[in-house]
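Cross-check.
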Amino acid sequence: AQLFKKFLAELPEPLLTTVGYRKLAKLIVPTRHASDDEVTFFNQSCQNILRTLPTEYSELAHVVFAFLSCCVDQEPRTKMSLRNISICFAPILMREMYIPERPLSDN
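Predicted model, tokenized:
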């Protein structure tokens, strides 16, 4: 898992890209008491954001999410629930990239 996380962390941009992260951050996650329409809107919005990813990131996201879904399916054996996997991988998959400040020169 550490090698997989390292690979994802070293991508030139996060898997869901900075732009995708900003769009996802604006969405309101439905609660257990959300209406079917609210859940549908949320799911469609997430799918639309994923469609805007560059092709290579979109294809990689498909593989990554399929793999993580298989991991969740193996929860009885691996003890990795959806929540646990989300906690481990969300900070790597979606984050805002910061441009480091340039050091002040003495000139």
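The helical segments are 2-9, 18-26, 36-51, 55-73, 75-78, 82-93. The mean pLDDT is 86. Passed to J.P. for a second look.
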